[in-house]
Amino acid sequence: MSRPVGIGVIGSTSTVARLAVVPAIERSRACVLAATASRSDASATYRSYEAILEDPAVEAVYIPLPNSLHRQWTERAAAAGRHVLCEKPLAPTAGDALAMAQACEAAGVRLMEAYMTHFHPRDRRLRRLVASGLLGEVIFASSAFTGVLDRPDDHRWHPEMGGGALLDVGIYCLSPLLSAFGVGPREAGSVEAVSTALRTGGSGVDASFSGWLGFGGGRAASFQCSFEAPERQQLELVGTSAALSLERPFTPGPEDRSIRLVRRDGTVESLSTEGADPYLAMVDHFAAVVRGRAEPERPPEDSVGLQRLVDRLLRSASVDRPGEAR
Which one of 43, 89, 190, 246 is at 20 to 30 Å from 308 when CA atoms are compared? Predict the structure, then answer.
């Protein structure tokens, strides 16, 4: 086995870093937590983000900073020769995401978005079932990811920091809908029509965002995401032959091992899958990409393509957005 990849965390007090990604790095045999940087936590290895990029033990960085800072610190990491695992969404706009991808390519380092759902065995099986034709022709799909964000000082309530429900959880809602209709993230522009509705909150960000996507031929999908509704996660894919649905589809863990199947004749079946920690699978895959043993399952081009759809949805809803991060 090759030497573990030394990973530094820029913004180690982030909730997702503390509760999920850092523990996964510490459990992984493919990675090692080389250093942490925080401007507020005295226990971090460094109090400055710049210092972590100068540490020779740091080969790659994980960036869980507010969305508005993703581009700046990805570009600085690339310039320092560090590979980047950047929290989702990759950036607040497709333009920023594309610039990040180009900076990493020019520097010869790898960039990967930290979208972990894709790595759970149940999600993999769901995609295989749809691709197998089990559902017949997919005609409807729906997704929802809502929860109460009751901290008014949280960066996700601030537009200048890339806040809003769609940017925060939109990737979870949109990715499986596109996949269900055979549309890759890079082809997200082929969605024929969109319609949106939102409720604003905080400093003007979308507190709740819902939308409708038209795929032609009477096929359509809908989604809901919110910072003000009770916590719920739902995903349902409906075809001419069968329907599939999942409980807790977007943040699955080792205990999430079943898919509900309803056949055309009304019979119901529970399909069993394996369970796993998708964060651990994600960091292991990132390490394999860094070491040249694998290509990213979700390359930056996919992240940029999906962000173009997010941009379109926000324009449809007439959301005022700050300029691109520099």
Answer: 246
